[in-house]
Amino acid sequence: MALSHRLELRQGQGLVITPQLQQAIKLLQLSNIELDAFVEAELERNPLLQRDEGEGEPASDGEGERDPSLTQVDVVADTAAGREMDAPAEDVSPGERATGDGAEAEHAGGQIDWSRAGSGGSFDGEDGYEHALVEVPTLSAHLRAQLVQVALSPARNAIAEVLIDAVDEGGYLRLDVVELAVRLGCELELVEEVLSVLQGFEPAGVFARDVRECLALQLKDLNRYDPAMAAMLDHLELLAKRDLAGLRRACGVDDEDLREMIAEVRALNPRPGAAYYSEPAETLVPDVMVREGLGGMWHVELNTDTLPRVLVDQRYHARVAKGARSDQEKTFVADCMASANWLVKSLDQRAKTILKVSSEIVRQQDGFLAYGVEHLRPLNLKTVADAICMHESTVSRVTSNKYIATPRGVFELKFFFTSAIQSSEGGEAHSAASVRHKIKGLVDAEKTEADVHSDDRIVEILKAAGVDIARRTVAKYREAMRIPSSVERRRLMKEMA
């Protein structure tokens, strides 16, 4: 068969991520601090951009009137209905209003009317990968990794997240548990129960509220906490003064035992969290504000104090464009103008997208805002994405490093997402924590070898109860709760018989 050359035209569809879209995606996942730094760099690079330092609306008369040659794009106001990003339709919904009608959107917020429920991205350089391999994890990351391994209900898990955020670089809890219980709308006993679980995490002594409790937790971990040690910890001031006679009387021990006890206390670490990497403390500024309105409505609005406002100087552009002579100069001016216009457009779309996602999260978790942490609902990215007609990846970027101020405190947007297991009967989904609790209950009910359930049998029982779950998921939950396999449980029962 002879070979020959020929030209063909083929038509096809493909997804191309343009540099402009890459910039828009990058802006979407930046935190407030990172966004401000990015805009500042753009202001230095692009001579056609200008930061708007004014407050409030432009004056209508007098010297406060804004120069008409400046094109203002307020990143908070929804003044550009129908604006469109160069993005796939399923990923970014261009020109969509975040919530409410036009009048509400102009105030960067909207009234969400429904009845109350019943019951950072960061961009590393070329050495980012190598840096990630050698970087010491932060204390909060280490604690959250352990939190994943314990089976806590959604309410307890939410309390644990707040407690982890309140741990300082030394490992001490800087939060009043009574105040936290009031703020989250739950019983003090529940907060104390969760704190007791967290105080069993590594490093030993973490989540202590003072030095005595920190040392006591470490001694309990070493199985060396007895009445004599408790008495010594109650009189640490005598140890600091080297009043050995007073310590001996307080502890009721002889000189040899006292020396051993002092050696053990001195071997403890009064700052258990110091071994972990600590990030520089930053002021937590919320991106979104939620306040309760009349008639059981929640008002959601952006925190305009943290959003940069930029202007495109049209007069300066006209002057430099007129003075450009060479093709290189004309190209530079055109590129600067296109970049400036796209930046203000991207900032506007970012603000509207954040507001839209936040409003849907508030709508889904209305029970938590109204009645407390016990009413957190199972929620995932797909649920929010489907409700607002966006892609899950967009919702994920929006909720990264973004914080929302509510009447119950300031929380990261990801705080409101709790995993769920679908119902086998098409009903309401089950929380993953509640499914783990069911599995643990089945195992705890085993009294004899004949009662021991295999993973397959547990799957059958759960499906009969309306929980659609796979065998591998049951095995994963069982291992996370450190429950032995059915074979090992039968052997243990046989040995104990």
Characterization of this structure:
By secondary structure, the chain is α+β, with helices and mostly antiparallel strands. Among the domains are: 139-267, no CATH class; 288-418, no CATH class; 430-496, Homeodomain-like (Arc Repressor Mutant, subunit A, Orthogonal Bundle), CATH 1.10.10. It is built from 22 helices and 10 strands. The chain has helices at residues 19-29, 32-45, 102-105, 128-134, 139-148, 154-165, 177-184, 188-198, 211-221, 227-234, 236-240, 244-251, 255-266, 314-323, 327-364, 366-371, 381-388, 392-399, 432-444, 455-464, 471-480, 486-496; strands at 49-51, 70-73, 109-112, 288-292, 298-302, 310-313, 403-406, 409-412, 420-421, 430-431. The chain has a 5-stranded mixed beta sheet, with helices on one face. Helix 7 (177-184) crosses helix 8 and helix 9 (211-221) packs antiparallel against helix 10. It is extended and about 95 Å long. The protein starts with 18 loop residues before the first helix and ends with a helix. The model is unreliable at 55-134 (pLDDT under 50).
